[in-house]
## 1
Amino acid sequence: MAQILGLDAAPPAGLSIVECEVRRRVWWTLVMADRWSSSGLGLPRQITEPDGPVGLPMDEAVFHSLPTLQVTIETSWVPGLWAQMIMLVRLFVTIQDLNRRSATGDFGSDELTRNVDTITQQLEQWEDVLPDHFRMSKENLDFHESRGTGGAFVALHLGFYHYSALLYFQFLEGGESKRYVEKCKLYAAAYSDLLRQSRRRKSCEALYATVAHMAVVSSSVLVHTLLFGEEHELDQARRLLNSNFEAILELERYWPSCSLMVSRLTTFQNSCLLAETHTHRLDGWMVRFLMEHSLPLEDKDFFSMTAHVSPRSGDIAERAQELAEQGRYTVFDQSTLQND
Amino acid sequence: MTQNQSAHVWTQLAPRTEAADTETPLERLLTPINQAEVVKLYLEKLHDRPHSLFHPATLKAQVCDGLLNRALLLAICSTGSRFSLELEMRQLESRLMSESKSLLLADLETICVENIQCCILIANLCAAHLNPKSEALFFRKEYLS
């Protein structure tokens, strides 16, 4: 339908600015949905060449203030929050492809590092050229909350933190690239912290279903800290994990699909309890955990895995008890939150 | 939101397991006032986050004037109803989605922006109800069909 209507092209003559901008935003919503939905369903992307004469969306506050039938605009065009999201989601595509190829052993170590370094530079460049009022800060959160764009502002940065954590996730395994490990932890923690902050601001809430999936990915990194981190990191990891879990439970009230998310996180943690080593290794199962959020996730089948995974002897409950005594295990259960 | 505040919200949001009214015609349950309320909730809670599909002022005017494509209206109302503090409105979610889907499928040969907007919302609703096949179907319809 979108192609037939020419939503990916310059709008036809005679439309108002609002009508043109709505067509533009519908097109880019399709592109965004294609990137997320395809990944979530494990299907190939449909929109292969999204860029064209359609142009990027304008500043949201300007757009919202326009009368419906206005045909000319005096202020010069400036890109809005959605324009930034669209530029950022291009890197999400690259990161998805990198992770899938890495899981199938496509890269040697040097080539992988080169690719990750390139994407790191692109993420940094994206952040560097952000207009000042779009950068993450308390002042900007206040600013966007006051002008009614708080939700989009939070969504933009939640996406950035999520994509970044995905890029560095595989380096949690092995611990050779310390800087990538630190980056992964940094962005996972930043995601959790922003989500917590947004829940305290009525018009900045992030209440769409994929927030729960992103919170699960953030939580899986925090689980790594809990299991393997230094003593001084444990309190914060536990606090952020509980905060993520509280957010997921709230989202579950709105979206039935979020009930899958709690079970995905529990399945993930159980797989960590069962593995002697390589808990966060990027294999096919881990790719499904990180990206295919619309599909059920089976328990990790250690028996069909190759020698790189060593199942631990003893059962999950015993291992959980052992880790709980060390303060390195948290139960994803509403009673945990009520006791905090 | 503090834990006490979030707990308060949770107690007000009754579980979906309570039986919804399937007998009363939808028009009687979804009054103009209810429509305006849930569309407002959609704009406050979801608009511009996972998708950006509308000009808010234009949408509100179309709803108020009764000029919005009905399939699209019901899809927006289904999406927004989950945030209502009124149990009866939350219970309408599935009926609204079902009715919207029927209307959309009956009108699929009409190629228009409203039907694309409706496809996107219904695809999101299918995803939310753990129906990945329908999710894929509606996303692909809006792009390719």
## 2
Amino acid sequence: MDVQETKTPRMATWLLRRIFPGDEARFLSGDIQEIYTEITATRGLFFACLWLWGQILTGIPRFIQHRTYWSFQMLKNYFLIAFRVLRKYKLFPAINILGLSIGLACFILIGLFVRFELSFDTFHKKADRIYRIFEENFR
Amino acid sequence: MKYLTRQEELILLTVFHLRDNAYLVTIRKHLKDNSRRNWSLGAVYVPLERLLKKRYLSMNIGGPNARRGRNEIKYYRLAQLGLKALEETREIHDVMWAQFSPTGYKLKI
């Protein structure tokens, strides 16, 4: 019973180990092996391969979605905690948020200003080597 | 408690039904035989894992099998939360489905 199984499933087990972290791949590949042997016994090797690849290919988007599901849950959890902190201690998060937003606004304004100043008369071909000298007279 | 989806409900019921022998292969087979639908591996595996993470199920690992190429089997069992969810579903079901019979219903007035 054991001899024929490990032919096609080798690529399948590799794929499973890539998609699933750690121990999970072993349990799954064991389950798949069991069904694979059963289908080979009842309906032949061809149907077994067909079944196996069908399952894996149609299952991959679902497996990947399942893996990323928990990272989204974690993100949602962080937002919930942030909301609760904000609601409970209104002043301190407000000061933080105010400071950060003022800092960000200053950064953006300074960046725009510098960009504006540097974009003066850039149509000259060697604009970075041209200087203008002027003299001011105060009377 | 939130509602169980139909899939989750069926899966929890099969785990309950196959007491000590509930792992992916047997659960899938039971579902295919009794729920008149074809269940792919992903359709069984993903909800199982989600129920496990939500602690409706617990798992234990045991017994590598010669047929499985030396890999251990992951058995699922119902946990306290899972039992409560199933109870609640059953109660709601009993109330809502009481005296249902399609023959007594007039389709047109």
## 3
Amino acid sequence: MGKSKLICRAALLMLFSIPCWGQQRVVVDPRSTPETGATLQSIEQNLGPFTIAGQSFTIALENRRIAGTTAGALVQTLEKLEVREQSGHVLYQKTFPYKLQGNHFQEVITASARLLPGDNLTGLLITYSRQPAAPGTEQSWQVFGFRDGKMALFDPPGPEPAMNVPPGFAGVVMITPNGPRTLPTPMRGPLDTVELRAWTGNFFVIVPLRVDWRAGKLLPGERCLESGGGPGLHEVGCYMRVEAERVPVGADLQFARIFPTTEEQASMSVQHAVIPKGAEVQLLKAKSIATWMTDGDLMRVQFRDLWLKVLVNNNTDNEGWIHGEQDLTAIGLPARSPYQ
Amino acid sequence: MKSARIAVIAGLILVLAEAGWWAAKNRPPRANVQTPVSQAPPAPAKPVPAAVNASASSATLIPTAASPGAPTVNNAVANSGSATGPDTEERLGPFSLSGTDYILVLSKKKRPAGSTQESGTTVTAMEIRDSAGTLVYKRIFPYQPDETEFSDAWSVSAGLLSGTNGTGLLVTYDQDSEPSAPEPEPSGWYQVFGIVNGKLRPFSGPILVQGDILQPDNRSKIYKTAGPLDAHSDALNFKVWAHHFRMVYPVRIDWSQGKLSPAPPCDKGSDAAGKTCRYGVLPESDRRAGDLTFVQLCPEASPCDRPERVVVKKDSTLELLSCVPDVKWEEGRVSSPAGSNPMDDQGGISVGTENLQLLVRIDGKQGWMHTDEDFNALGLPFEQ
């Protein structure tokens, strides 16, 4: 009898100590009760496992949640993230301070992860989302991969002047009057191009990112240069695919200035389009200068001189480029959080 | 013997007399030859403000007694233009100013045909003379008979300018140059003459305007000012092309000083630096009305960050209310041209292409437009 009781207790102990992969575990931590009177819960979450080069890794998330609240935008935030080996050993850890404001957090952060498959190797992409956030700071990323035989964080792309394109950078495109032309620069090691879905402030674009697996470094996926308007080359926007969902507009009529090219100077031939409610607007492509920034060990991307090519009601007279908040709002893409 | 000799001589005399009578009776009729009307030598030229163009042709000026307005054939013109046909002369007037009559004498030649085969005449010289024939003012115009491609022709017209505080003479000069591209408004020169200290004198150089004089009745041969500005001055309104519309530019005629100057309608009480001068705008009949478009309007004359977008339909009611342009006035020189350019003493009224602001009302919605983009969206004319 004593023996069976021991076995049962051991079984119960094991049952509760095995991690719940992909599930959340709620623990009430009374010590974290803030001065505001709200009670915080600790929500543990695991992402994965992710298999890279035959090894298994998980992402452990520790969230803070305000107890007693219904699901809302600012009631749960990420406090700590860990990248763990299969053995549980922590390879990387990052904490995110939080601040309460009444019965919600001043800012909430969430994280998601996916494999980053390349032709040569595979990495791990972690995407962080922040809200509310200043425009351009809603998203940030990290890429993990094998570096010197160990799983480590890759260096983010650094800002480089257009006049000083590094040798071996294989993503330089020169815009000529006859169209884009890739400059014949030598390749440097095994480079893969991956794509990130990035928020511009009004819609998502697909941004290329180059991964140098050997050096453990990230590079901008593409840079578009043009001559003219001064000595040497200067950076202009690259074309990108668009993913967007238009929001309904209230007024019966909206107005947009449609340009033949992505230059404001060509104002003489600007088409003044009147867009009735319910009009069909096709979003063809975007053009912008994507600049990678670092925020500690996170990387973000900012979009300068953002243009969107549209076609309204299948009327080629109303096909062209728009830009600016007023015109993007007119076609149902106002500035907003990507999580609305 | 002696009597026979006498008889022979008498017979010869008779024969000769009869022959002479027969010849006189049967000679062909004499041709109808025109002679110069007057061969009086030219009066000695008095000093006049207008210097003669040194490079002009050396035509001899012969005062004629022909009736005013009647062209006169002048066979005594000493220039080498015989291949271009005879010169003609036209007289305008008389114009009565302060009890003295003045006439304009226009010397003309046949216009070069050019590549477009133009016809007509071109003025080569203009003189203003008083009733005594005294030369008061003169302007020479170039003549290029050998020009094969272009055909330039000068024309001069004149009329009394009647104001509340004075009366003068308004002379207009036009140059027609073919071939040429069409323009929304033609350009011409306007010069006001008046009596100052008993003498007729120009009030400014010829004022170049792309537009016209604004008159209540275009059919009248007498120009009228737009009304008094003070006890000595009247306003003369010009229609001036402002790149997308026609604005009204008032000019002050000071009859006592014999001077022209701008009379802009500016804010009262503003300092010179911050003064805003708002000009009238004429209705636009040459508008290209599309189906549906919009324009951007600002609440003030200065550009705004977020203009209001106002829909414009094909049948929208459009009113052009006023404008704030960058206008430049130049008085020019009162003395006559000194070089080969007949208008190198010119002044002018010109409108800059930058900072053009137009106040409009569209279907009752009022606001300011600033950009070529919006002027074109509204269908206003534009320059090619």
